Amino acid sequence: MDLEALLQNMTNMRDLHLALVNISSSVPQSLANFSSLTSLSLSFCNLNGEFPNSIFHLPKIQVIDLSGNKFLTRFLTEFPYGSPLKQLQLSRTRFSGKLPSSIGNLKALNVLNLYLDQNQLNGPLDFQNVSSNLKSPELGGNKLIELFPRPIANLSELYGLV
């Protein structure tokens, strides 16, 4: 399936859910022009290449689920202040590099899944700066340090840590 051709005239789309559809291509940069997009679910689609960082900056994006795309790569970008992102699911991808400190800008974040299968994220993740709505972050297998430099009492919704 050619994802770019499929999306070519759909720039006003709000939700794009193609989970488990065998796309076997890269994510088109043009997806960053979908300023109305609130939810992007492309899990287990056999995506490859570099994910466009500009998608993380879409003004209304609340859900990004790219899980299970073991050939999808990227270094994470800085997250914009005031981002409405609530769910970030990158497990079993090849995202790598330092986790940006600006993850603390995601004040609405309640689902964070960075579980390692292929991820190689590293650096500090200071729970003091992440959303107090975070429920059960999945971080296992990454090289994250300083998970608890200060008490995590501000995570009032936390019910598990993987």
TrEMBL record:
It is a single-pass type I membrane protein. GO terms for cellular component: membrane. Signal peptide: none annotated. Pfam families: LRR_1. Its main location: membrane. Gene3D superfamilies: Ribonuclease Inhibitor. InterPro entries: Leu-rich_rpt, LRR_dom_sf, RLP23-like. It is found in: Membrane. This is Receptor-like protein 7. Keywords: Glycoprotein, Membrane, Receptor, Signal, Transmembrane, Transmembrane helix.
